[in-house]
Amino acid sequence: MAEETAEQRLARLEAENKALREQVEQRKPGQLRLKVSEKGGLSIYGLGRFPVTLYKEQWIRLLDYADEIRSFLKDNDQQLKAKQ
Length: 84
Prior knowledge:
3-stranded antiparallel beta sheet; 3 helices; elongated
């Protein structure tokens, strides 16, 4: 395989840059993103500064407990703070 010329490399990098910019523009502020972590956990990005990562079994337990969490949030609404 022949080496890229400077013009070919520039064209390739510009195309990659354009594709990356389009990906960034498609993301809405506050939108959550899912990713499998290096260790095999499910990471959710977009809730805070750092991702929330749990293993599959932990997510299932948490999701099964969703009604209780919603009820607790409702019952303790006055004591809980909301992120501004």
